[in-house]
Structure formats: structure tokens, C-alpha cells
Design a protein that fits this description.
Shape: elongated
Structural class: mainly alpha
Largest sheet: none
Order of helices and strands: HHHHH
Helix content: 55-70%
Number of domains: 2
Oligomer: single chain
Number of helices: 5
CATH superfamily of the largest domain: Cytochrome c-like domain
Number of strands: 0
CATH class of the largest domain: Mainly Alpha
Strand content: under 5%
Bound molecules: heme C
Radius of gyration: 25 Å
Length: about 130
């Protein structure tokens, strides 16, 4: 005995199943990505990986409460823009405000080791300078 209506419904049902599977797959992936972000700990990096100098550890630990120091170290900015960045981290992201001598220490470190990267004549940047 044949059930034509069942076989007629099958391609549609299969597509629905495929769609549901994709949906589950995508949300699993998104969940994984989120979990990976949340499991970042400062232990993944250490201050010793960055240029030694006054304020290094203070700067490292202030910033790695939330994100990798690599995110900081790949920037090059003037002292003023580093200061603005600290304001953004505090106002937008809830970083405890750095004030007084702590702020000086952190800004000195950032200004000294992560200044704006000047483009070399011809637009080429020596990858071995600065970092
Ligand atoms: C309370 C959490 C928190 C702390 C502490 C923190 N940040 Fe951030 N920071 C963030 C978040 C969230 C982002 C990514 C979102 C964004 O850029 O708006 C970010 C992004 C950045 C970026 C990249 C911005 C861009 O435009 O790509 C820089 C540079 C930065 N932070 C510097 C610092 C420095 C320097 C410190 C330490 C002195 C610090 N952050 C501490 C939360 C924080």
C-alpha cells in the first residue's frame, strides 16, 4: 500500500529538518565563540612578554581585567589619545577610574612603549621597530 501524501511531504520535511539542524549548528557555534571570550584569563599572557619599564605590571593588570594586553600593545597613540582611551574604558566599559599617580604611571608606560607609529617614507613600516 502506498501513501502518496507522505512521500509528497517528504522533501519539504527534509528541508525543514536541514534548516533546524543548521539553526542548532549556528547557535552552538555562537555559544562556543561566546564561551571562548568569557574564558580569557590574564594567565594567557604575562607582563614579561611586554617591554620592561616603570608601570608595566600596573598597566598590564589594569587592562587584562577585561581583555588581552595584545589589544593594547598593537596600538600606537599619543599620550593624549591614550588618556582618551582610558576615559572610554572607564566611562563605557566600567574600568575602575585610574587617578593621580596611578594614571601617570600607566600613561607614562603607554606613551613610552606604544607611541604613534610614524609611516616611513614610501609608506613602508619596519615591522621590527617599536614592538
Ligand atoms: C572594564 C573592562 C575594561 C578594562 C579594565 C579595559 N578595557 Fe579596553 N576595552 C574594553 C572593551 C569591552 C573593549 C572592546 C570594545 C570597544 O573597543 O569599544 C576594549 C577595547 C580596547 C581597545 C581597542 C579599542 C579600539 O578602538 O580598537 C584599546 C586600545 C583598549 N581597550 C585599551 C585599554 C587599556 C590601555 C586598558 C588599561 C589601562 C584597558 N583597555 C582596560 C574593556 C576594558
Amino acid at each position: 500500500m502506498q501513501f502518496p501524501h507522505v512521500t509528497a511531504a517528504a522533501p519539504w520535511a527534509r528541508r525543514l529538518t536541514l534548516f533546524a539542524t543548521l539553526l542548532v549548528g549556528v547557535s552552538l557555534l555562537a555559544g562556543l565563540a561566546g564561551a571562548q571570550q568569557q574564558t580569557f584569563t590574564p594567565r594567557d599572557e604575562s607582563p614579561e612578554e611586554y617591554p620592561a619599564g616603570p608601570g608595566r605590571d600596573e598597566t598590564f593588570y589594569s587592562c587584562t581585567a577585561c581583555h588581552g594586553f595584545k589589544l593594547v600593545a598593537q596600538q600606537g597613540m599619543t599620550r593624549q589619545r591614550w588618556d582618551d582611551t582610558l576615559v572610554v574604558m572607564t566611562q563605557r566599559h566600567g574600568m575602575p577610574a585610574l587617578e593621580g599617580s596611578d594614571r601617570e604611571l600607566v600613561l607614562n608606560y603607554l606613551e613610552t612603549h606604544y607611541p604613534p607609529t610614524a609611516a616611513a617614507p614610501g609608506g613602508w613600516q619596519n615591522p621590527f621597530l617599536n614592538r
